[in-house]
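Ligand-bound model needed. pyridoxal-5'-phosphate.
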Amino acid sequence: MEQHSRTDAYTDRYAARAAGMVPSEIRALFAMAARPEVVSLAGGMPYVSALPLDAVGGMVGELVAGKGADVLQYGSAQGDGQLREHICEVMSLEGIQASADDVVVTVGAQQALDLITKIFIDPGDVILAEAPSYVGALGTFASYQADVVHVPLDNAGLVPSALRETLARLRREGRSVKFLYSVPTFQNPAGVTLTTARRAQILEICAEYDVLVVEDNPYGLLGFEGEPMRALRADDPDRVIYLGSFSKTIASGLRVGWVLAPHAVRAKLVLAAESAILCPSNFSQLAVREYLATQPWREQIKDFRELYRTRRDAMLDALEQLMPDGCTWTRPSGGFFVWVTLPEGLDAKAMAPRAIAERVAYVPGTGFFADGTGHRHMRLSYCFPEPGRIREGIRRLAGVVEDEIRLRDTFGGAVTGGSTGFQAPGPDVV
Ligand SMILES: Cc1ncc(COP(=O)(O)O)c(C=O)c1O
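Prediction:
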């Protein structure tokens, strides 16, 4: 566990759990990456400018003028009933059949993560998480003093045999697992998607070991090929707690997400939400409700998909043409992220300041591992910059990586590597 900072005069007063609250790698980088001359491939900000802002603005204005007494009032801790009905309609696109009564509206999926961790985790409890995992989830897990045990991913998502081995080992050690946390579709940060065959295997293994699954799915509707993947929750309603969000399909600034949970868990979540925030913002919820009821939201999601697909293509083409030999990367079929593996002996964390000096930013892989590994990796986001900027960013990045390779070759592998945590594709990749 991290030590409290020596320069903080309040150190001796904090609760033990505050020791796990340390700034993420992304936060430290954001200040520098925000400078206009830097091409930021770091943040996962959705491109909200693609929304019809005038129409949304008019809709919100009418909402306040017409229903202000409701819109600006407190609401219920569970969230607006009609919005929860709409949420069930959205989830049905991924094969989920749910009752609005089992949905809790949250302040983004991030708050859903917080509430779930709060109700399930005592200090030292084990959470299984993909290696790499979403940095915001790792932050939440650390703040509740969970013991995160990683399970490797490959290009087909979480590796079932590794999950089974990890569960067997933990059982032998007499340690129980509270839940498996997974982003099965268009994963953040790896950009990979759990195949259909593996979905069944993962659920089977979790049933065998009686482990709950937290399925975090903010990108599920942002696929570039075919129909949306069937959610894990669609096939095991009693085992899977599902997290959704309007951050990527409408707008992240609204801060509206949700959790769908088995009925008894839902009741605990509502109580936890009540003590955390009383109720989610009525203003945001009714804006989302109105948007879903009056605006062509399915068409808008299609537009987002096209926009992100064009940017994904720009990034993959540029990587292909410009990156030096020895670098590999994933090829996402949806979502926001490409995960790059650098040649042996390079360290993406050590390289980050040099990249910033060359006016390109990314997130070093280490932020996505609870165990300090991931040095050879970096996350690149293609969601926000225009395609021309993406290409320029990759050109700059490729130059930085070439310099690092030269340095390594001159000084004999001085730049550290460490375990990668990300394995080559397994035999069951389809
Ligand atoms: C995997 C994952 N889960 C949760 C979140 C949090 O999303 P929200 O904006 O709904 O809180 C994000 C945001 O990027 C994410 O990538």
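The chain has two domains: 16-45+299-409, 73-295.
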